Amino acid sequence: MDIEGILSSSEFRSGEAIAEKAGISRAAVHKKIKKLRALGYNIIGERKLGYKLVSAPDRLDPNAIKRVLSRKNLADYDIIFNEKLGSTQTEAKLSADSGAEDKTIFLCEEQSSGYGRLKREWFSGRGGLWFSVVLRPGIRPEAAPHLNFVASMAVVRAVKRIFCVDCRIKWPNDVLTRDGKKLCGILTELSSEIGRLNWAVVGIGFNVNNEIPGRLKGIASSLSDHTGAIIDRQELFCGIIAEFDSLYSMYLKEGFGGLEGEYNRSSIMNGRRVAVEYGGTVLKGFVKGIDKEGFLVLKTEEGGIKKVIAGDVRVLE
Ligand code: BT5
Q: For residues 127 and 150, is the Cβ–Cβ distance under 8 A?
């Protein structure tokens, strides 16, 4: 066991106890504490009492994440961590093609070529959460957009439960603050044959403690901007995975029909007049809601009802 996992923030642990638990010498404990301090951990040491962890730096520590997931009975989510990647999405898709198992997650601190729908650039500097989950859900390929919905609901639930922040879902793939700025974007890609989904990769890009570049400030914000405090990204990440796991199991049992009510309650668009761009056409109308199949149901300006499964939505009023 590494010593970050042995140090406690609520009590002192003696050098001797840490050494015994970690299976290393006391001199090695001393060296490791020095190294952790250099990495930004604030650890106090008292001669007679030992060591106590005051704060950890804002770095993702895959071992700490694995420990928390395992305590929450979520050890089947396999975390593959890299400091920097082109895109977690690209890595996850390659590994899904080579047989990566259901619930394999690629997570990194920074992406150099993160992308959104239609390969739009996705800004992914340090301090955010950028990750992609390989899933093999055994659903029809046409149902894959539901995975976007499950992921956005998991984000909304986790942010509410941990930070008491209310956010909203903008169908089909955004999570927004209440003032309409984009906190998180979700992208689902898949490989399929007729009638059969081989795998889906759900990518989640969440602005947490990262800077928002000037050109995006009008439309995007971060959770730490919103709360005014540095966010514990590990807690947030593990919280999202826990919520995702429970919603995903419910989805596999009951289909989107079991989640539709909660999704609609979090939707920012119900009752609003919108323009939806899909397949080269623009449709205007009032949003009636999201139905049991995950379609956006629109009352068009001509008075008819139209259902759309994916598209870019602009809220008009
Ligand atoms: C999305 O696309 O919102 C899906 C984004 C998914 C990103 C994740 S990160 C982990 C995984 N690895 C990847 O490479 N991708 C996934 P879309 O709806 O197309 O939105 C893209 C638009 O959002 C861009 O054209 C910008 O206007 C804006 N944008 C770019 N970076 C942003 C950011 N960090 N926060 C908010 N908006 C951003």
A: no
